[in-house]
Amino acid sequence: MKYAINGLGIPEAHGPYSQGTTAGRLVFASGQIAYDPNDSTKLVDGDAAVQTERIIDLIELILGEVDCTLSDVAQTTLYLSDMADLPSVNEVYSRRFPLPAPARAVVAVSGLPMGALVEMDCVACR
C-alpha cells in the first residue's frame, strides 16, 4: 500500500504531488529545492552549497516522518542548473550522507523551479 508523507516544517507541495510517499519498505522523497524555512515563496540566500544544505535538511524532515535517516537513503538524483557547482555540492553531500554513500545520478538541467541552483530527490529503505 502507498501512503503520503506530509510533515511539519516541510513546505507544502506546489502542485499535484506529495512531499513523499511510502510503498512497502521504500520511502520516496519528492524533488526538493531550497525553500526558505520562514517563507516558502522564496529560496534561501546563498550559493549551490547553501542550497544543498537546506535541501538535505528538508529530506531529513521527510524521512524523519517515517522514522528514517540519511543512512537509510539508497539512491539520490541531483539536478544542477550549472555543472560547475558540482564540486561544492559534492562537499556538502559527502559530509551529510554517511558511508556507504547512496547510489546517485547527477543531471544538468536548463532550469529549476524558482531559479533554484539544485534540486534533489531520493529513495530510502526502512
Could you list some keywords that capture this structure?
2 helices, single chain, globular, 126 residues, alpha+beta, 35% strand, 60s Ribosomal Protein L30, Chain: A, six-stranded mixed β-sheet
CATH superfamily: RutC-like
Largest sheet: 6 strands, mixed
Number of strands: 8
At CATH level 3, the topology is 60s Ribosomal Protein L30, Chain: A
Gyration radius, rounded: 14 Å
Which CATH architecture would you pick? Answer: 2-Layer Sandwich
- Binned, the helix content reads 10-25%
Q: Count of DSSP helices?
A: 2
Taking pLDDT < 50 over at least 5 consecutive residues as the criterion, the unreliable ranges are none
Average pLDDT, to the nearest integer? 95
Distance between the termini: 15 Å
Q: Kindly give the count of domains.
A: 1
| Top CATH class | Alpha Beta
- In terms of DSSP E residues, the strand content is 25-35%
Helix and strand composition category: alpha+beta
* Helix and strand pattern: EEEEEHEHEE
Question: How would you sum up the global shape?
Answer: globular
